[in-house]
Every structure is written in structure tokens, then in C-alpha cells.
């Protein structure tokens, strides 16, 4: 991350993150075009500020109510920041080999489930400078990339688990929300 982005993140107002079942999480996001440049430039520091505050390792624009094909990732391996901005991604290849790992989502606070996904992918995207990237990704980065790319389609991690587990998670979230509302009242 260049110094100007580090400074922008530290000064940015974190976006509030939408919690399921907010209908905005189910909308397919629009491609980022030339007309969106100012919006994207302003949103990136606020997305990082929200993700680091949560804390989390990925956040997609639809999770803050922005219908744009944009997400950020920072795995923060060993506590070291390594931010990645992904715009208009395409997944070109998914490995037949799958892997099951526990996943969470900032739009499902406190909820986790085992999700099976392809272990490796090949993807293409643009970064915040407009530079084009094409890379093979695997492990946690491939998992996170797929999770965030799903958000751009209105697909959530609970769509990859059984209806029984999904309903349990949604009920727990609703209960949590009622408790929060009660404390506020
Ligand atoms: Zn998520």
C-alpha cells in the first residue's frame, strides 16, 4: 500500500457494514466503469477502514450498499498489512480439487460454518490504478477471493451450506439483532 493510501485509510470514516438479511446483499453488482472512478477512489479508504476495524480479511462493495464490482482483501498474514484492491474480477478457472474450511463474513457477525470451495483459481482483475492483473491463487487467498467475488453476484457464504445450517445462522442473527434493538430502546 502506498503512503498516501495508508494516510487516507487512517483518516477515512469507516463505512457501516450491512448485516444479513439486508436485501442489498442479494443484488448483483454493476461493473465499475469510467463514470465510477470518483466514487471508487473515495470508497477504497473507507472500505479498508471498515474492514480493519471489524476486523476482517475481506470486504465487498455491496456489503456497504455500493452496487459496484469492487472488493478489497488483506489477509494480514503474521499481522503485516498487504492490501489488495480488486475491480471487475473474472474467475477464469476453478480447480476440480476442493477444500473445506471454516468461513465467516462481516455481514454475518459472529457466525461461522464449514464451506467447501475449489482449492485454487485463476483470476483476472483491475487494481485501484487501473493496472490489469492475472494470477493463479490458492489456499486462503483463493478462498477469500471466491467469497468476495460471490458477494458481487449476491451470493453469500451461507448459500454453500445446508438449508438447516443456513436457517440456524439466520435465526441466530435475527436474535442478536432483536437483543441489540432491545438494548437501544
Ligand atoms: Zn462476506
Structural topology:
Blueprint (H helix, E strand, L loop, with lengths): L2 H9 L25 H17 L4 E3 L9 E4 L10 E11 L3 E6 L9 E6 L1 E7 L5 E7 H14 L10 H22 L1
Helix pairs in contact: 1-2
This protein binds zinc ion.
Zinc ion binds next to helix 3.
Number of helices: 4
**How many domains comprise the coordinates?**
1
Task: Tell me how many strands there are.
Answer: 7
Instruction: Please compute the radius of gyration using only Cα atoms.
Output: 16 Å
- CATH names the topology as Peptide Deformylase
CATH architecture designation: Alpha-Beta Complex
What is the chain-wise order of helices and strands?
Answer: HHEEEEEEEHH
What structural category characterises the helix and strand content? alpha+beta
Question: Are any ligands bound, and if so which?
Answer: zinc ion
| CATH homologous superfamily label | Peptide deformylase
**Main beta sheet strand tally, sense and closure:** 5 strands, antiparallel
The parts where pLDDT drops under 50 for at least 5 residues are none
- The proportion of residues forming helix, as a percent range, comes to 25-40%
Q: What fraction of the residues are assigned to beta strands by DSSP? A: 15-25%
CA distance, first residue to last residue: 42 Å
In the sheet with the most strands, the strands line up as: 1-2-3-6-7
- Global mean pLDDT: 95
Structural overview:
This protein has four helices and seven strands, in the order ααβββββββαα. The chain is α+β, with helices and mostly antiparallel strands and 185 residues long. The protein has one domain: Peptide Deformylase, CATH 3.90.45.10. Strands 1-2-3-6-7 form a five-stranded antiparallel sheet. α1 crosses α2. The chain is globular and about 45 Å long. It starts with a helix and ends with a helix. The site of zinc ion (ZN) has 5 residues, from α3.
Amino acid at each position: 500500500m502506498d503512503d498516501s493510501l495508508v494516510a487516507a485509510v487512517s483518516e477515512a470514516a469507516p463505512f457501516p457494514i450491512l448485516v444479513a438479511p439486508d436485501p442489498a446483499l442479494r443484488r448483483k453488482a454493476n461493473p465499475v466503469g469510467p463514470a465510477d472512478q470518483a466514487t471508487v477512489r473515495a470508497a477504497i479508504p473507507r472500505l479498508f477502514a471498515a474492514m480493519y476495524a471489524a476486523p476482517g480479511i475481506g470486504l465487498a462493495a455491496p456489503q456497504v450498499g455500493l452496487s459496484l464490482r469492487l472488493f478489497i482483501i488483506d489477509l494480514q498474514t503474521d499481522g503485516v498489512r498487504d492490501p489488495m484492491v480488486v475491480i471487475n474480477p473474472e474467475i477464469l478457472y476453478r480447480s476440480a480439487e476442493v477444500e473445506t474450511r471454516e468461513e465467516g463474513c462481516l455481514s454475518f457477525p459472529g457466525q461461522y460454518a464449514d464451506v467447501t470451495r475449489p482449492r485454487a483459481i485463476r483470476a483476472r482483475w483491475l487494481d485501484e490504478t487501473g493496472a490489469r492483473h492475472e494470477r493463479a491463487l490458492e489456499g486462503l487467498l483463493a478462498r477469500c477471493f471466491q467469497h468476495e467475488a460471490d458477494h458481487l453476484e449476491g451470493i453469500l457464504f451461507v448459500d454453500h451450506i445446508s438449508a438447516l445450517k443456513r436457517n440456524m445462522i439466520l435465526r441466530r442473527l435475527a436474535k442478536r439483532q432483536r437483543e441489540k434493538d432491545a438494548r437501544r430502546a
